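Kindly inspect both lines:
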Amino acid sequence: MAFNIKFGTDGWRGVIADDYTFDNVRRATQGFASYMLGQGKIGQWVVIGYDKRFASERFAAAAAEVLAGNGLKVYLTNGATPTPVIAFSTVHKKACGAINITASHNPPSDNGFKVRNQTGGAIEPDGLIQIESQIPDSLEDVKRVDFTLAKNNGQIEIFDPAPDYIQHVQKLIDLQPIKDAGLTVMVDTMWGNGAGWFPQFIGGGKTRVIEIHNQRNPSFPEMNRPEPIPPNINVGLKATLENHADILLITDGDADRLGVGDERGEFINQLRVYGLLAYYLLEIRGLRGDIVKTLSTTGMLNILGEIYKVPVHETGVGFKFVAPKMTETNALIGGEESGGYAFRDNVPERDGILAGLYMLDFMVRTGKKPTELLKILFEKVGGEFFYDRIDSSFSGNRKDRENMILSADPITIGGLKVMSLVTIDGFQFRLEDGGWLLIRFSGTEPILRVYCETRHGDKVQAILRDGLKVAGIA
């Protein structure tokens, strides 16, 4: 019986040589091709890119053969390419969609298969369901053309996506002041696709860029996985202190997410980074536009929305919800708890490179270091916000556990009164201090996540412990 391919919050991921095989990648590609043909896209172009994981370039070539076999044309990147660059290329080349061979921040054992529409953004949930439904059970139903033949007859074209993306970013941000600022910028590319991009953008002047983990190594040494959160970034934080750097920028495996460390070698969590980026665009750049946020990100955005009189939209977790809402509202910024941030006038896709450049521009325009920028943000939103998360494996039936959470009906969590329950995605208990506890199941891994944000730093662990109890986990 054929393996059942299911798309989570951001595509399909699996264990290489177990469920993530060439045959299953071909089957998934056939489902995507059938979906595109059903949308009337025959003869149109699709961008395919890939990361630096084991055999990613070969999986990308396999996908290209299937698209060509279905009468679609392929722009295949000439090397490992950041997800935001693939997304931009989709729009720039007027392609009807994209396939990205990457498992993003997953462990080294995994690889993945992301699909995108003509905006370069995530395909909405209904579209993912349609793609899944058209994945054939048998390879006999997969159409293919030999790679060399397809390349020779013009169905597959290999291209360099870098020049057009670089020119595009230079229109969004004046890079010369950053080059001239004399900063020391530490960059941890986590053995991934972000390598070389910051030196290319801001090198060559007084500012010094120091990269680590910038070679290809699919085993990801010195970290559990290329996810830009502790403890994976501890080596980078230490290097920040050793090199007296002004900031640490961390891009994940496919460079769509950004992590940040301050000048003291301390991690700035993703919710605070989102608050900083929104404040930068609204206050420092003087821009206006809607804000799109997932349930699992910061309430500081709601406060900023009120201060600057811009709408704030809350969605389920994942860019399959964020991207369509950004497109619908022409949002100024959209983002999620995992460190993914997207921006207007770019594409509705997370862009760790542009987010990092905006952080540097924030520092240069204000003359402030990261710790000072945080202080300014907290003064604006009326105090400090604290966040943490626990991921836990779970046993038993997921539906039974969901019913258990729903029936728990706690009066207080972490000593704070529960004001309401939101079930857009998982179970979010809104607390009296404006904070929240969120319990939800991962869309890509067999993991239950418990997150919280609160104005009370001394209550974070108590909130998380109560969240685990509500979820039935000791």
